[in-house]
Amino acid sequence: MTEPHPGSRPTLEAVAARAGVSRATASRVVNGGAGVRPPLVDKVRQAVEELGYVPNHAARTLVTRRTGAVAVIIAEPEIRIFSDPFFSQQIRGISKELTARDTQLVLLLVEGPGDYDRIARYLAGGHVDGALAFSLHTDDPLPAIARRTGMPTVYGGRPSWPTAPGDRPVPYVDADNRGGAREAVRHLLFLGRTRIAHIAGPRDQTSATDRLDGFHDVLPDADPELIEDGAFTEESGARAMARLLERRPDLDAVFAANDLMATGALRVLRERGRRVPEDVALVGFDDMRGVAETADPPLTTVRQDIEGMGRLMARLLLRGLAEGPANTPTSVITETALVRRASA
Length: 344
Known about the structure:
Oligomer: single chain
Number of helices: 13
Order of helices and strands: HHHHEHHEHEHEEHEHEHEHEEHEE
Shape: elongated
Helix content: 40-55%
Structural class: alpha/beta
Radius of gyration: 25 Å
């Protein structure tokens, strides 16, 4: 049996010899290939651990034409990403799934229009095997960049951009935003509220428009004065709440399209002397850790599995890379659930 020389770097040949398999079999196991019987896989992995073998990344890339890295592209400025817990939870889910598959995460942020050229060059340069993109807006150039560079991409959120005839369906992961919004509004009606306002998210994002549509599904004749736009931030929720109270001081309930806007609305309601939920019932959307539960009072909110959606995005991309795009589902819609707390 061939053993590595003391102080030398263990080779793939030494792993194969220790496991009692051919070099080709050892290579398939180390590089994540299929077609190797489980007992042999176990032997190779044990040999890798015993010898402390570390694959040569450059050589593996030449053989597999894979970099072992995935780009995570968030179409929002840095200040928004690091202040909104939604993004940290989704990135956590993505990171967990990629780490479990021995794949590196490369984070790419969009501060302004000039960053798209940089991202396009990076994707075209062969630095990553695929991309995960979320928080896209209607006119976002990222889908066109992905098509132009041929980069396999899975999106977070229902696509809203136009596709050309013959294009493959776009794979994406999203929550049942419309259904969750319907449940939130029905809950407020069940409580006996009759003047229900809605703080909507940005109209150029499908999560916001789907939640607005869910609101209208239950209240098709809602007074337009009871609807105000926000930007998925706490401050925008506060501003929207102030405008709503100026127009309709008699409102008795609010459905905010995310938890951050709901906390901003809660702050303004308390400043204006409105008791929550006695005077105004309040429901958010997301059930974000560190936001909904720590609000005072804790928010009733629609729960979506943010971390789970991140894991699912990564899983779909890696499956498509391993098995081909034909085996990647075109869309996955995850369930939502209303979490009843003290604000409604």
